From TrEMBL:
Catechol dioxygenase N-terminal domain: residues covered: 35-104
Keyword Heme annotated: no
Cofactors named for this entry: Fe(3+)
PANTHER family: DIOXYGENASE, PUTATIVE (AFU_ORTHOLOGUE AFUA_2G02910)-RELATED, INTRADIOL RING-CLEAVAGE DIOXYGENASE PRCA
Keyword Iron: yes
InterPro entries named among the record's database cross-references: 1_2-HQD/HQD, Catechol_dOase_N, Intradiol_dOase_C, Intradiol_dOase_core, Intradiol_RC_Dioxygenase
Descriptive protein name: Intradiol ring-cleavage dioxygenases domain-containing protein
Stated family: Belongs to the intradiol ring-cleavage dioxygenase family.
Top-level taxon: Eukaryota
Amino acid sequence: MSTQQETTTTTSKGFERFDPTFTTNVIKSIGPKTDPRSRQLMGSLIQHIHDFARENELTIDEWLTGVNFINTIGQISTPIRNEGHRVSDVLGLESVVDEIAHHIMTESGETPTSSSILGPFWSPNAPFRPLGGGSIIQDPVPEGGQVTLMHGTVTDLVTKKPIPNAVVDIWQASANGKYDFQDPENQTDNNLRGKFRTDENGEYHFYCLHPTAYSLPTDGPAGVLLKLLDRHPMRPAHIHLMISNEEYKPVTTQIYPSTDPYLVTDTVFAVKPDLVVDFKPRKGDPKATLDLEYNIILAPKTLKGMGKSSTSTTIGLEPRL
């Protein structure tokens, strides 16, 4: 039985409490030059917003609180702080869109590497770095940082063959839980960021840091929302990856250490079981103390059953400038 309070639309004498044609008229006001997809999305949005207001009998004060909350999101956002993206993540919306966009399975039940949310910290400006001995650690290793050799093979979901010349784009926070552009006092631009191309055997390898759990910034609307919902702001430690090749469906994902205490309660709901990995001790390498093998599987673009692309270029926006 649903616990949600039902809202009656008629009085005891049969009179309508709300104008039954109002929402329809608002949707019908969408002009003829509106493209079909925008018409579908905005019509549905209007319908759901109006239904939400009626079902919950939204008060004027509550509506104004919501309007002010949206205004604050815009006011606090900057080219390096995407608060709208962060609030979307706290509400779980990006994870839902990610699930819709990346759903594929072969006839034998096999799936490619799971996707995960992009998050607000990706940069289009990360440079390509050399594969042999390459590293995304461009500054001195921070206090508490554990250098890791990360390596693996990128393969085809269908043929199982390695994929040469695939681009592995990686970014992560430093040991203090901050990304380069959040931390100009301690990090240079593009520290802990880089792109690598797989070799003829589909292999990649580079040095990075064991990731660190961190708190979302709580000094803005996302923090207000988390406090209202009695939730913590912590993200489990993770490394971001974006893997692409012109003949394959790109995958954006995150991987998480199996020992992290926030795996089950990730505040942006992005953890998936097959993205949890084990870091192991590395011996005989003066550059690293840990080893991480992570193999990646891509699906050919010709394989059916895909969702719609979820790249940031869909609507012409970049996650950050």
